[in-house]
Write a structure and sequence with these properties.
Strand content: 15-25%
Radius of gyration: 23 Å
Helix content: 40-55%
Distance between the termini: 19 Å
Mean pLDDT: 87
Order of helices and strands: HHHHEEEHEEEHHHHH
Shape: globular
Oligomer: single chain
Length: 286
């Protein structure tokens, strides 16, 4: 089947939702979202230094931790030729300690190797040229995982280096923490246990910690918050659709069998966009 026919058949198979139907679908999806879902988590922490500070105090056990800055979706793209990463939450405290807070639902995304990469990328990012290595700040890379990736049934694992020869800990300033999102112990009344419960909870009325519940309630129960989340879901759909169009155009350009006009029609990109893709990747259309 040629691409034009395939495109037509696909369009016939997919029923277009009306704006009202799409909005209702977004509302139903929003109702099910939890802080454990990264999209929702990023919104909870966006421009909310106090909430990030509250959560980090519980996880790290640093009771006097005071953040001076916090942002979500912090891009690390400075490593030439290396893989870039986008941090869910990036924060700095008054002592210069750095915190990277991530949520990971898939076990494959919570490997020790990935955490190690995050820690290494932070080290490169945070040590300016000509600065002494001794000035590298203390870092905490924290992964909140949906499953018990360490397999021990414990709520938290704090990992640091130690000397294999003597068995003594080695404090190099790098801390890795796994928070087990699957942890359940009804007799555990600690704030950490309550935090884990709330991160898995979709209903703010069933949450234990008021700070988490209040922010969740804003995005699920107020007109402003609901509108913000629905707009975010719409933007994400548009970004996904655009990426799919670009990938379609690139695959067709790579074959070298289609004209720019054909590629534009099938991919639903503008002719100008297709031409720019061809120029950028040095493709020659038919």
């Amino acid at each position: 089947m040629n691409p034009m026919a395939s495109k037509k058949k696909k369009a016939e198979e997919i029923k277009e939702l009306t704006p009202e139907e799409q909005h209702q679908q977004d509302l139903e999806r929003l109702e099910k979202l939890r802080p454990m879902d990264d999209t929702f988590m990023r919104e909870l922490f966006r421009n909310d230094k106090k909430l990030a500070q509250f959560v980090l105090r519980i996880i790290t056990g640093i009771k006097d931790l005071k953040l001076t800055s916090e942002e979500t979706q912090y891009d690390l793209q400075h490593l030439f030729g290396a893989r870039s990463i986008c941090l869910d939450v990036f924060a700095v405290d008054k002592l210069g300690r750095i915190y990277n807070l991530e949520v990971q639902r898939a076990d494959s995304g919570a490997s020790l190797q990935r955490v190690r990469y995050h820690a290494g990328a932070l080290a490169v990012e945070l040590l300016p040229t000509n600065q002494d290595f001794s000035e590298l700040p203390i870092t905490y890379v924290i992964f909140i995982t949906e499953n018990d990736v360490r397999g021990k049934g414990l709520p938290l694992h704090h990992i640091a280096r130690y000397d294999y020869t003597t068995g003594e800990p080695v404090d190099d300033g790098e801390h890795i923490i796994f928070v087990n999102g699957a942890y359940q112990n009804k007799s555990d009344k600690s704030k950490l246990a309550k935090l884990i419960h709330d991160f898995n909870c979709s209903d703010p009325d069933e949450m234990y910690l008021p700070k988490i519940a209040e922010k969740t309630r804003y995005y699920k129960r107020t007109p402003e918050g609901v509108s913000r989340m629905c707009k975010l879901m719409e933007d994400m759909r548009n970004e996904t659709t655009m990426r799919e169009k670009i990938q379609t155009a690139l695959r067709m350009l790579a074959k070298g069998k289609y004209s720019l006009e054909e590629i534009a029609e099938i991919s639903e990109l503008s002719l100008r966009d297709v031409q720019e893709l061809a120029d950028k990747h040095n493709f020659v259309a038919a």
